[in-house]
Write a structure and sequence with these properties.
2 domains, alpha+beta, about 45% helix, about 325 residues, elongated, Arc Repressor Mutant, subunit A, 10 helices, Beta Polymerase, domain 2, two-stranded antiparallel sheet, 6-stranded mixed beta sheet
Length: about 325
């Protein structure tokens, strides 16, 4: 019964995103350590009982792994490796395989852009986040980045990087530069500790800046309470990224009080702009309300929006499935 509940938690979460998973992925996201053979035995039993479904993947034509994708726990499954889902819907397989292939292309682009972004002043680490970090991208997918900056210089770095992003609007490439989550070295530990943030942490792909990234992953070891495999994930990006003359120069001249004042100025300016967007009820291209939480040491999407919606849906879905699987007493 405990094994079934652990399996159900994984399937229920990814079902929210219409994403069937392999046995290896289920093992990676289990909330307890378990031998692979025991997991497979339970999956076979659940399939025979009709509580979950094994989806065929023979249509898969696995491409070569893209640069930086080797750090992704959602590795391309081999041909004939089945997916497991709570729904017997072959369209889920087609959707996932198409999204995996598109992610291969975007991961190559993301790896190149990450090295480019790392050359901005005060950037100490860059990870690839969002759906792409799970090795999935639909046709409208963005490339999302998680960015670590030097202490007390987040707002200088963010302002310069978003100024650069605006230049890419001219090329209609702004969706390749979604830099929506920043923390500095003072705030490496994520405040919200739940299944959503833990999933984002364990799937975050290191792209550039090993020192900052390793410190960040170590500071969030709480994630291992949700996913024991967190401690076995890759923490460092592949290969060093050389600094730039401009980066070194600006960091040197803005190292004192003028840099402190400029960072504070950019924080106030950005906060005022986003407050106006929230008051107007502005929405992004996906129809979600635009909201940003800004403090001295972080800038991030408001968790009361998308994150909380996912958590609420997950709680309801899990409760329903616990009843139908006969696990309601085991989960108390």
């Amino acid at each position: 019964m405990p094994m079934r509940l652990s399996i159900l938690k994984v399937l229920a979460y990814f079902d929210l995103f219409d994403y069937p998973v392999t046995a290896d992925e289920i093992l990676f996201f289990l909330d307890k350590e378990a031998p692979a053979i025991d997991l497979q035995t339970e999956l076979d039993t659940l399939t025979r009982e009709g509580l979950l479904f094994q989806l065929d993947t023979t249509q898969l034509n696995t491409p070569d792994a893209p640069e930086a994708a080797h750090t992704n726990p959602h590795a391309n499954p081999q041909t004939n490796t089945p997916f497991y889902s709570l729904r017997n819907d072959p369209a889920l397989t087609t959707r996932r395989l198409r999204g995996n292939r598109h992610a291969d292309d975007l991961l190559k682009i993301a790896a190149r852009i990450s090295r480019q972004l790392y050359r901005f002043p005060y950037v100490r680490g860059i990870g690839i986040s969002g759906s792409l970090s799970k090795h999935f991208a639909d046709e409208s997918a963005d490339i999302d980045y998680f960015i670590i900056t030097r202490r007390n210089r987040l707002w200088i770095a963010r302002t310069l990087m978003h100024g650069f992003k605006k230049l890419n609007y001219l090329r209609n490439r702004q969706n390749w530069y979604c830099m929506n989550y920043y923390v500095d070295e003072e705030a490496l530990e994520i405040k919200e500790k739940n299944i959503f943030t833990a999933t984002e942490m364990i799937t975050l792909l290191p792209a550039s800046g090993n020192g900052g990234l390793v410190k960040f992953f170590d500071a969030n070891n709480w994630t291992s309470r949700y996913f024991p495999q967190y401690n076995n994930r890759t923490k460092a990006a592949e290969g060093p990224v050389p600094s730039s003359i401009v980066k070194n120069f600006l960091e040197k001249i803005l190292d004192g009080r003028w840099g402190d004042r400029l960072d504070d100025l950019f924080q106030r300016w950005t906060t005022q702009r986003w407050q106006k967007k929230e008051q107007r009820g502005d929405r992004n291209k996906k129809g979600n309300r635009m909201a940003l939480q800004n403090e001295k040491h972080f800038s991030r999407p408001n968790p009361e929006n998308f994150q909380q919606k996912v958590l609420d849906r997950y709680a309801r879905r899990l409760h329903e499935l616990e009843h139908s699987w006969g696990l309601i007493e085991a989960s108390v």
